Amino acid sequence: MKKLSAAEMVERVVTGDRRIAARTITLVENEMDEHHEIMKLIYPHSGQARIIGVTGVGGAGKSTLTNHIVRKLRGQDKKVGVIVVDPSSPFSGGALLGDRIRMQSHTLDPGVFIRSMASRGYLGGLSKGTYDVIRIMEAMGMDVVIVETLGAGQDEIDLIHIAGTCLLVHTPNMGDDIQAMKAGIMEIADINVLNKADQEGADTSFRQLRNSISAAGFEAGAWVPKVIATVSMAAKLEDLKGIDELMDTIAEHDAHLHAGNHIDRVRFARVEQELGVVFKEKMERKIYNELKSTGKKKEYINSIIEGATNPYSVSDEVLNF
Amino acid sequence: MKKLSAAEMVERVVTGDRRIAARTITLVENEMDEHHEIMKLIYPHSGQARIIGVTGVGGAGKSTLTNHIVRKLRGQDKKVGVIVVDPSSPFSGGALLGDRIRMQSHTLDPGVFIRSMASRGYLGGLSKGTYDVIRIMEAMGMDVVIVETLGAGQDEIDLIHIAGTCLLVHTPNMGDDIQAMKAGIMEIADINVLNKADQEGADTSFRQLRNSISAAGFEAGAWVPKVIATVSMAAKLEDLKGIDELMDTIAEHDAHLHAGNHIDRVRFARVEQELGVVFKEKMERKIYNELKSTGKKKEYINSIIEGATNPYSVSDEVLNF
Q1: With an 8 Å Cβ cutoff, is A222 touching chain B?
Q2: Which of A60, B6, B71, B147 has the highest Cβ tally under 10 A?
C-alpha cells in the first residue's frame, strides 16, 4: 500500500474515494502525525452538509429510526454519512448496551458511508474525532451527516451544539426519573420522537411529552419542538408508522433554519464548538507533554499530598503564561 | 466590614470561624482576585477529612439520607461539612428537580457546616469551586465532608474520583433504561443504597442490584460494592430502616481503605483530579483572555465558516507553544 501524502489523501477523499476516506478517518481518529495537516486541508471542502443528530436512551430504537431516515434520504437521492458514537464503558470494559447498528441494508449502497466512533467514555462527551469525521464526510460530498449518540450525558449536549436538526428519541413508559433528567433536553431537541408508539401507554407518554414542551414557553418566531409518534420496527414496511411525518418535520425544521437565517447561528455554534475542542486538545497535549511523559506529574501530586505545594502553585510553575 | 487579607481570612478559617469561612467560600466560588492566594494558603491545612459522596437520580432521597448520615456522625462527635451541588439547568433556567436539601435540623449545630454550590450546568461535572470548598471545610476542621450531587452525568464520575466512599442511591422500579445507564457506575460506587425500600417492588430491585454487582466480577482483595436497603423518610425515627447498617458499612469501607493502604490511592486520585481541574481552568482562562475578551473569537469563527482558515491553524496561531 503506497504511502500517500496528506494532500494526496484529501484529494482522493474529495473525489469520494471510500477506501482512502476510511483510511483518512482512521489516521485522524488515532491522532497520527498527519492528522492536523489532513484536517487543515479538509476544512475548505467541508461545512455544507445538513447535520442531523439522533439521540436518546439505549433501546429506544435510534438505530432503526436512523436506518429509515437514511432510506428516505436515499429515495431523495441525497448522499448520507452516518456516524454511530459507540458508548463503551471504561468501567465495565464492554459495551454499555447490547444494541448495535442495523445498517446492513445500506452498507453496499455507494451513496451511504457509515462509521462507528468510540465515545470519550461514559458520559464524557463526543470525542474530537467525531467532529473531524463529520468534516471528512462532508468533503466526500455527503449531503446529510447523521450522528447517532447514546443520550446519556455530555454527548447529547455536544450533539445539540453541532447538529442543525436534533432528534431526541423517547419510548413509552420511560419513567418519571428519566423524564425529570430530560427536562432541559426535551426543550432544546428540535424534534421529540416517541418511538415504539404501538406499545401500551404510548398515548399517555405522547400527551406528557407534548404538555411538558408546551409548558416550557418559547419566544415568538422560535421553533417549538415537535413531538412525532413512530413505529420504526415492523415485519412489513407498511406497518411502520410516522416515518413520513418525521421526514416532513425534519424538512420543515430545515426550512425554518434557512428562512430565518437561523442557519448562520447553527453554523457559528458548530465552529465555536469545534474550535473549543481543538483548543482543549492542544492544551491537554501541552499538559501531557510537560507532566505525564516526564513522570513529573506523580512528583507534583505527592508534594501536594505532603502539603509542600498545591495545585495553584504547580499550575503557575508549569503553565507560565 | 473590615477587609481582611487572604492570610488573615485563612487564619480565621483555620480557627473554625464560620462567618469568615462563608465569606471565603463566596470569594473562591466567584473566583475573585484573592482566590488563588487563599487556596494556596488553605492547602497545607487540608486533605485529612473523609469525603463521602452521595449520588443518585432526583427523587431518590439523597438529601434525607445525607441528613441521617450527618445525624449519626454528630452522634459520634464528628464535625461534618455538607456540600450540595445544585443541578440548575442552563436551558430551563430553573432547578432541574424540585427536591431541595432538608437540613433545617442541623443548621444551628456548630459542628455542621452546609453549603450549596452551583453545578457547572446540565451534566457538566463538578465545578472547580466544589473542590476548593471541600478543602476550605477541611481547613475549618471538618472530620467528614459529604458531597451530594445529582447522579446524572459527569458530576457522578468526578465525585467518584475524589470521594473516599461513594454512595449511589437507587429506588425500587427505576426501570430498565436507568439500570442500563447505570451499569458502569454501580460497579464503582462503594455502596449501593436501595432507598424507599418500603415501596412495592423493593425486593425485586434489591435482588437485581445484588445480581448485577455479583455478575461484574472483582479482583481478590478488592472491595465488592455492597447493597443496603433503607427507608430514610418516616414519621418516627424508629420507623427508619437500614440507617445503622448503612453507617456500619460506611465505617467498614473506611476501614478497608486504611487496611490495604488503599487510602493512598484515594488521596492520589483526589489530588490528580484537582490538579487537572486547576490546569484546565488556567488554560480556559488563557483562551478566554486571548480570544473572547478581544472579540477575536468571533472573527476566527467567521473566517473558519468562510473557509479562509480552520480550527487547527487558529489554535497554532493563538496557542503558540
Answers
A1: no
A2: B147
Domain count, chain B: 3
CATH of the domain at B251: 3.40.50.300
Point out the residues of chain A with pLDDT beneath 70. 1, 86-107, 119-125, 151-153, 174-187, 293, 321
For residue B265, how far is the Cα from the chain centroid?
18
Let me know if residue A268 belongs to a domain.
no
Residues B20 and B58 in one domain: no
- Partner-chain residue, chosen from B57, B185, B305, that has the shortest CB–CB distance to A181: B57
**A216, part of any domain:** yes
In whole angstroms, what is the distance from residue B95 CA to residue A6 CA?
Answer: 49
Supply the pLDDT for residue B232.
92
ipTM score: 0.81
The verdict on A178 and A200 lying in the same domain is yes
Q: For an interface test with B, give the residue of A38, A177, A190, A219 to mutate (most B CBs within 10 A).
A: A177
Alpha carbon A254 to chain centroid distance?
18
Gap from A28 CA to chain B (nearest CA, Å)? 13
To the nearest whole Å, the CA of B96 is away from the closest chain A CA by: 7
> Which B-chain residues 184-203 have CB contacts (< 8 A) with chain A?
184-185, 187-188
* A20 assigned to some structural domain: yes
Helix A128-139 / helix A35-42 crossing angle, nearest 10 deg: 50
Q: Are B89 and B96 in contact (CB under 8 A)?
A: yes
Helices and strands of chain B, counted as H and E runs = 13, 7
Which among A44, A157, A177 has CB closest to B178?
A177
Numbers of helices and strands, H then E, in chain A: 13, 7
Same domain, A154 and A41: no
Same domain, B1 and B94: no
The domain of A163 spans 48-260
- Asked if residue B40 lies in contact with residue B10, where contact means CB atoms within 8 angstroms, the answer is no
- B286 and B221 in a single domain? The answer is no
Is A47 within 8 Å of B307 when comparing Cβ atoms?
yes
How many Cα neighbours within 13 Å face the side chain of B211? 7
Residue A32 lies in a domain: yes
Give me the DSSP letters along B256-272: HHHHTTHHHHHHHHHHH
The residue with cell 432507598 is B195
Same domain as A164, residue A106: yes
Cell digits for B309? Answer: 482558515
Output the nine-digit C-alpha cell for A60. Answer: 429506544
